Amino acid sequence: MSSMSSTPTAARTPVVVSLPSAAMWLVGTAVLAVLAYYFIGVDQGMTSVFGNNTVIHEFVHDARHFLGFPCH
Ligand SMILES: [Zn+2]
């Protein structure tokens, strides 16, 4: 014989997001992702973001390999 637990549980409230707000967050996230992708891929070593060095290239080196950019 099973008995139902009668302990009160907190009611779950759904997250209500309006369509324009959801679209704004989706577009903003996509723009940031594209900017991050460009930032990781643009620094090839000979064309550098911050002058004639490979600081950014070395900093994002593993991410470059993970994303398939040619390297060495
Ligand atoms: Zn490499």
Keywords:
transmembrane, CbtB_put, mainly alpha, elongated
Would you mind describing this structure in some detail?
The protein has helices at 19-42, 55-59, 61-67. It is an all-alpha fold and 72 residues long. The protein has a domain at 19-67. The longest helix has 24 residues, at 19-42. The structure holds zinc ion. It comes from Petropleomorpha daqingensis.
Q: What's the short version?
A:
This is Cobalt transporter subunit (CbtB). The protein is mostly helical and 72 residues long. Helix content is 50%, strand content 0%.
Q: Helical residue percent?
A: 40-55%
Structural class: mainly alpha
Low-pLDDT segments, ≥5 res: none
User: Total number of helical segments?
Assistant: 3
Q: What is the H/E string? A: HHH
List the helices and strands and how they pair.
Layout (H helix, E strand, L loop, with lengths): L18 H24 L12 H5 L1 H7 L5
Bound molecules: zinc ion.
